[in-house]
């Protein structure tokens, strides 16, 4: 073994021996201290049970020599902790003092229980002392001590009878604190009172504060503040102040005067109920200033705490106070046009002075006053009011009937594009009479007025800061959403059964959508605003288009179902009665489409009118063809002729639904097939064979099996028919 290793081992032995020696010196002290703590804890626990569970104390704390024993334990424990810290610094081998540490943990656990027991046995002393202090008008000290005791008891836990004793002690503390609070409330009611008296044509509000004992008033206010009862005590006065006093000061002219009774100062607000003239801003703010100055001079100067009396009062009423001032006093006088703007500037002077007074009084923080927004930027106040008026005017316009006043908009151009409204217009001036990509149609006048107001506000917003541009864009989006929500609900029946209103609603939705695309906006608005309009309104523009299409599609689907039901409702096989049923169904469909022509042709865009009517024609044609092939039994020749003539008449009647000749083949899938049906019903067998072999349109429209069915229905079953049927391939 090297010399270095030998030296290291000797050093370790020396260190270990020192630790053992130090531990051996501290261990008896540790055990003695633990034993003393446990013995006193047991005595205190018994005293606590006897006092608050059995209610028959056997030994008092003086008899237990509680103060000295507790003091000695705490003093010895402090010295012991210092010695243990010294031992920890020297110790690097924890295994040497492991047993010692376990004993230390046992002592810590005993001390925790000991501290709780000290608190509960001293509870009676604290409560008795609090009663004594409260009787000497030291309200704050008494209530704070009981409140602190309550808070400590809340975190404690005992077992067995200790739990019940703890509950009894806690109950006594709560009862004592409640009694103090009740007595302070009575004192407060005597010191600060308010009343309302009505006599004849006058209404008088009175606020009274006792001045005979300022020291007592200070103690009461501070005690209520410290135990956080001030807000509760001011709750009734807060309601009185907002609902009655403030309301009448805003609505009526007041006469204010004070009276000095023996030991009390009374502040009176007298109101003449016969006077109809409302007070101006200056009068209102002067009267409110007088009320606050009275409260500050009488109660505010007496509360010495982190918050002033006015600050505590503000916690109760601040939001309602400012809402009342803004709604009843300011908002009704906000300018909605340039003519009233100059008058509002004069109001702002008074408003600013009152706002500064409230800030100095600490009723509100400088940067948190709601009045700042009505003072600092009067141009934006004017614009905000205009935006609110915009929404209000739009709501009023939306109450008008869809067909109350109509106007023609859009451009009547040749439309090469198949899309309903995506019309490429060249060299056209875009305005509200001719929105972007809008074909000629009829809309409700109120929709155009709405767009006119929107454009006016946009043009005016260019002069204001960017944030107000953003606000207006959101207002415009709200208008689009309002139209989508209000109109379908308000005119629900009309949009289900009235063709004219359905067409106008469809046009209105598309007019709003295309107008909100702008003329386009980048040509007339600053780039940031134009970009914001395009991105923000994109979703609601699409929603408007979808909603318009949805309403007209639902109506068309309902009419299609009725047409199909009436055509397919006749009985099988064919007879004169079933033909009459078919004829009535066709007449209904043609009459319906004639009515829609009268309602829609001059209202809807030309292409939309074509698509809607062709949708119903398609349903009629398919139903009639389906009825022909529904039964393959032979039909008498005169009935076949009647059906053929009815097909021809239907073709002629359909043609009258349009002002100009229409290429139905490109609009209606089954038109060629429908148009050929009367020829097939009138032709002889050889003519049918010739048509099948020579007419390409026939073979493209009909399957060979359908031609065979027509032959089987019309001609008798013989060898000649069999031969003809074989040729139809």
Automatic annotation (TrEMBL):
Residues 589-728 form the ZW10 C-terminal helical domain. Residues 204-398 form the Centromere/kinetochore protein zw10 middle domain. GO terms for biological process: endoplasmic reticulum to Golgi vesicle-mediated transport; mitotic spindle assembly checkpoint signaling. InterPro entries: Zw10/DSL1_C_sf, ZW10_C, ZW10_C_2, Zw10_middle. Pfam families: ZW10_C, ZW10_C2, Zw10_middle. Residues 438-561 form the Centromere/kinetochore protein zw10 C-terminal domain. It comes from the Eukaryota. One of its GO terms (cellular component) is cytoplasm. This is Centromere/kinetochore protein zw10. It comes from Bicyclus anynana (Squinting bush brown butterfly). The gene is LOC112055291.
